[in-house]
Amino acid sequence: MNKRYEELYSLSLRRGFIWPSAEIYGGLAGFYDYGPLGSMLKRNWENSWLNYFLGLGDNYFLIDSSNIMPHSSLKASGHVELFSDFLVKCKKCGESYKADDLLGEVTGTSGEGLKAEELDKKITEANVKCLKCGNGFNAATEFNMMFPMSIGSEGQDKGYLRPETAQGVYLNFKRGFEVARKKLPFGLAIVGRAYRNEISPRQGVYRMRELIQAELQIFFDPTKFDKTLDFENIANYPLRVQFHDDPQIKELRCEELIAKKELPKYYVYHMAMVQKYYLEQLQYPLERFRLLELGENERAFYNKIHYDIEVNLESLGGFKELGGIHYRTDYDLSRHQEGSKERMEVTFEGEKIIPHVLELSFGIDRNLWSLIDVFYEKTDRAVLRLPAVLAPFTAGVFPLVTKNGLDVKAKKLYVALRDYHNVFYDESGSIGRRYARMDEIGTPFCITVDFDSMKDDTVTIRERDSTLQKRVPIPKLESLLRELIIKKKPFTEL
Ligand code: GAP
Predict the structure, then answer these.
(1) Who contacts 126 (Cβ-Cβ below 8 Å, separation ≥6)?
(2) pLDDT tens-digit profile of 80-110?
């Protein structure tokens, strides 16, 4: 791991974002827990994601599903047969590696999408050896990544922990469609955990065995979806894309991309919506974002069109996948119709159709890590410049000193604000140290009760990014905070 990763991981442990699971027992590779700040950041990210992506349609809803799924359902979906990675094992020490990642790590060129024999050949040609003991490898074998389980006292029922939240939606599609307005497009999202027995989770929080996903499955009729979208609005919007056979990132207008790659309008429309989410809602810098096309051999077995959502992360050595835009056709519902013998066909505008699926899929753990990577800087001061709406605490509330009733007034203010905002009360250490502590965890505003507050019922409010301070009346504070955070009013206009 590089220096930047160490810096961010240390921040994460020290301030309580994320840390290893079962740490007091030595931890378990690929499992992490969220501390108080991490949990708040996660909740805020999930709320922001839900607001934005469920807002893309008027018939899109959140559901939840069981994490354990019957064997029959994952056999039908293709995961029992195909949800696998290639594993290579050291001949001497037995250390296991995900073959394509190992190739990528050692040679700089990922082996994603290669077959077993191709991986073996490349590993031999590049003289890749075990990172632990320096010996050679056995031939690559396929390894299914699902966690199997036996259910019931005799273990009579076979099941798996779900490998993607998407499957929870497909199993609920029939009922979901019935209880909604029976029209297409129709969206169902799940925000929850998925489980993958990753071969060698050695990239810290990037490759976990218990991960959290936010996935929206949009069910649609491919002959009618375009008409429901305001494509004109984004026709000239420039997308930052990279094609699978071209090392350069390009900026192409949505219309140009459609013409160049013969992509459906509805697909490109959602690429634009995803890019806007990162650049406009979350304020990621343009140059750190790209949508990466996956070639035919690199796509998951269920995808016909696939662009990964990637952000350049210094701590992980370059562009990394945070999510994907997947056109899964009618593959999933057709497979479940076959496996369950339940009809997945719906009647819409007089026609019978098995809906197609466009999946907007995001890994929450990776997205949270990316926020810390993109927005944390340590120069003359340490600041986590998180978008205000995601910050674990909206504001810190401090008395300048704990005498003459300043602390009583500050505490009263803190309790009043707590009904509306997640605020943090702090009276320990100098005011400068308290500001510094808030800056480092991304708190966008700090409110200080001082001697003047006792006379005129005003406080100072300090902005994290500029360190500017303004004087505001206490009765207006709550609504001002809302304007700053939700309406993104510039601090200078306060
Ligand atoms: N439903 C589609 C699906 O699951 P995926 O590309 O396998 O597609 C979606 O996973 C996202 O989940 C990824 O883009 C990534 O952000 C996250 N993800 C996948 N495997 C992960 C892992 N082992 N650890 C952390 N996040 C992971």
Answers:
(1) 103, 106, 107
(2) 999 999 999 999 999 999 999 899 889 988 8
Q: How far is CA 11 from CA 5, 18, 35, 46, 426, in A?
A: 10, 9, 12, 22, 20
Q: From the CB of 164, is ligand 1 less than 6 Å away?
A: yes
**Tens-place pLDDT, residues 453-486:** 999 999 999 999 999 999 999 999 999 999 999 9
**CB environment 272-298: b (16+ within 10 A), e (fewer):** bbbbebbeebbbbeeebbbbbbbeeeb
Cβ of residue 366 lying under 6 Å from some atom of ligand 1: yes
DSSP H or E segment with residue 334: helix 331-340
What b-and-e string marks burial along 129-164, b requiring 16 or more CB atoms within 10 Å of the CB?
A: ebeeeeeebeebeebbbbbeeeeeeeeeebbbbbbb
State the burial class of residue 106 (Cβ atoms within 10 Å of its Cβ: 0-12, 13-18, 19+): middle
The CA-CA-CA angle for residues 410, 411, 415, to 5°, reads 120
From the CA of 322, give the closest atom in ligand 1.
16
Global pTM? Answer: 0.96
Contact present, 98 and 87 (Cβ < 8 Å): yes
CA-CA distance, 50 to 42, in Å (whole number)? 12
For the stretch 204-227, pLDDT in tens is: 889 999 999 999 999 999 999 999
Give, using CA atoms, the residue closest to atom 16 of ligand 1.
363
Asked if 307 and 292 touch (Cβ cutoff 8 Å), the reply is yes
Length of the chain: 494
The reply to whether ligand 1 has any atom less than 6 angstroms from the CB of 101 is no
Q: Work out which ligand 1 atom sits closest to the CA atom of 198.
A: 23
Quote the CA–CA distance of 133 and 50 in Å, as a whole number: 46
Q: Is the minimum distance from the CB of 207 to ligand 1 under 6 angstroms?
A: yes
